[in-house]
Amino acid sequence: MCPESVEQVLTRYNDSRRCLVEVLQDIQDREGYLPEEAIRRVAERLDVPLIEVYRVANFYKSFTLRPRGKHVLTVCKGTACHVRGADRLLDELRGQLQIESGETTEDGQFTVEAVNCVGACALGPVVVVDGEYHGHMTPHKLRGLVASLQES
Amino acid sequence: MEKRVNITIDGVHIRAPEHTSVLDTAIEFGICIPHLCHYPGVPDIGACRLCIVENVVRGKPRVTTSCTLKVREGMEIHTNTDRIQQLRKNVAEMLVAEAPNSKAVQDVAVRCGVTDVPYKFHNEECVLCGRCVRVCNDVWQAKALGFVGRGRDRHVAFPFEKKPDFCKHCESCVDLCPMNRTPCPGPMKKGEEFVCGQCESQLSMAEDVDDSCVWCRLGDGFGCTRKVQAQ
Amino acid sequence: MKRINTVEELESRRDTLLQEQDSDTLTVTLCGGTGCRASGADPVMDALQQQLKEKGLQDRVSVQVTGCHGFCEQGPIMVIDPENTLYCQVTENDVPEIVEKTIENGEKVDRLLYRDPVSDEMIEKEADIPFYKAQDRVLLGDNRRLTPGNIDDYIANGGYAALGQVLNRMTPEEVIGEIKNADLRGRGGGGFPAARKWETCRDTPSAHKYVICNADEGDPGAYMDRSILEGNPHAVIEGMIIGAYAVGAQYGYIYVRKEYPLAVSHTEQAVKQAREAGVLGENILGSGFSFDVEIARGAGAFVCGESTALMASVEGKVGEPRPKDVHTVEAGLWNCPTTLNNVETWVNVPHIMNKGANWFASKGNESSKGTKIFALTGQVKNTGLVEVDMGTSLNDIIYKIGGGPHNGARIKAVQTGGPSGGCLPENKFDLPVDFDALTEAGSMVGSGGMVVLDENTCMVDVAKYFLNFLQEESCGKCVPCRVGIGRMLEILTDITEGNGKPEDLDVLEQLAWTISETSLCALGKTAPNPVVSTLMYFREEYEKHIRDHQCSAGVCRNLVEYRIDPDRCTGCGACLKACPHGAVEGEKKQVHTIKQDLCEKCGICKNVCKFDAISVQ
Fold it and tell me: What's the 3-state SS for C310-372?
């Protein structure tokens, strides 16, 4: 990790206590996760007890304290996706990658996540691959997607 | 002199000091409201929900925790209606099924009328009352502990799950814990949990006691400061 | 951008902008909502720009990318005006033909026109499509006309006129009076009268006051707030400025989920433009009134839809609710009086100021006024965003607008209100959709999610789904919510796995009552609703699971078994290839079998079998 980036983020938010959640988001966007030393530094500069920052980092779902894979596959588990078979997509990924949601493959290539709703309900079931939305997903199409990512 | 407000608790007129909670006021005046997460002198969060009462607002009784409810002029509180008794018993059932291992929890559950629970026992080591967290953060300002995670992942932890060097080693967190303050003399083994009902607090279930404070021993478990009988 | 210093300057700016517009110009409008983008709107846009350039048409044709039109099922959507031709599911490969035929020669490309699934008729004009026709698109209609975040577009469309009128001619009390006369009720969930909030906030003395726009929209199955904020952020900002003027607030926050990146960037852009134009910030339109807003990005927590949790989150803390014995309108953000309204509530404000309380109150029914946007999803033909007058029946929404069942299966219920709402059976579909009727029937309007469920949905599974969601999303602070939901889930899991006991239903009811009465916040208080409503209307499904260990919908995995019919199996190998768990075996051209010990009952094999050889038992 390049230590400058955390300092830059904090400076951009003027060391504002209110912006703790946003600061952590930006750090995560840069690093892919929240490293321990970054959390300690944020606590120091914002003058917030370390336990508070640690609590915030653990409370919100989009934060992760462990590095994620090169590709992040996010399966939407919203109601609309659920009734249109989102569980089968998780089945497919579990079968293909041998990991449960929330885990990363040993080779660090893939992280599978299940989220509650990405707000694209009309297209359900939806899988977000590295930030890109894929609607009307089927286990078959998903297998193709994973394969193409493995090749790339 | 301290300003006081007029409230009624179970029909009794009380002049309560302003800014105090209904629970503190009730205890002060010898009216017993079961509680678990409350600890004298430590800020309340309303986690265990055992101290629920009915607060009558514009003629409608609203269920709320008395520890987080501040007294207001003209307030009308009922601590023991049929509805409250049933709800409190249901909450106590949930609690004792989580941690039958703790005498404090057994005590309070039995006192709330629990004789059996309709769930599988879980035998947890923590009921997340948060006394340790609050005494550490709010009283001693050490800020070494906190609730981490949410939903079923919520637990009490140090930052990064390691004891930090700024912990003051005051041991208050251990002292105030209802799980180890009064451990059950025969700790229950996993899979063998039950509501024993052998605690002294059974006394408090007697309907006709002379005084409003029943010396229930519950107080010991909770570090209750109420040792004075009313009137 | 030049700063607008007075209301008069605003009006003359509007006149100039309108004069520049030419209604005869050929306009191609592409929906750029998240739905259409996910379906491939971006490559269509690129191809269109390139084609127009190649043919030298870029000056003659104006191209506009707008926010969500709502017809997400058919995306990417393209509308060509003034003819009002609507093309659906457009791909980049269709673009050359569209340019040649429609743009150059005024002909239609038939295969891209919308085909009504009910009558099988081809429909040329956007306005004639039943999905749109049965709606009253007061709020969503603007999405279709505006380039998101472009303030000139918004002003030309009548934007900030309400603000000008309020600042010029109305006292804060008059503004609140107008909202009160309109009987505007909060669109975020409970339907609490907005004017009552505003009034209390105004009457609470404090040096600092805040207004907040709740765009957290954590309900799974709902995305109307996302679409408004993405498509028309200025309207939200205008509503907030008017609200701030009414309650006496100097500062506001728009709390939006990080998962909505497009909404965040469009809103950021709109805020910046509004500041430059002088409609936001110091001395707005020369009135002496100052107000500014900031965007706060949520990081994913359903409980932050609850007002006290949301405010804690805006302050940069863990989003845990606190007891609400003192309301947030008296002591909210940093303990100051705070007015919190949802996106859709705020967007209604400029409309009410422009057209009057009577206009607003003329829509809807006795109990609920105005229109409401719903996210119609699930097993229905036309999924998307629909806006109807309050009081429209569920039947009209599901059948007239939604076009009925998705793939021939019988519709059996609709889930409204998200995790805090409930499931209503088909025999309740004549109910008017308003705040009180749905609550009385055991569900709620909520923020507007409407998920249609058909006979392939197991109602016990739906209840379990929501409890699972709520268990993860509960902050875990209080016992009834944390432990109680867990216990309910435990019981439902037993039932769906064939281990249910007859007395379980009584325990569920007792738990539901306790959780709803004793939980600390609204998340817990409403958490049992999905169970209570399914128990009320679909009790026999629960009983069947418990008594007969059967799941009629074939959803509950422990109660079903997948088998291959040897008479039908051709040995094509499709199921073998598709099974992610390696549970299908068999030689090519030979009958295949399922190894039950490996089978996880996901049903993928059944879906890929072209010979109907796989059955669920």
Answer: HHHHHCCCCCCCCCCCCCCCCCCHHHCCEEEEEHHHHHHHHHHHHHCHHHHHHCECCCCECEE
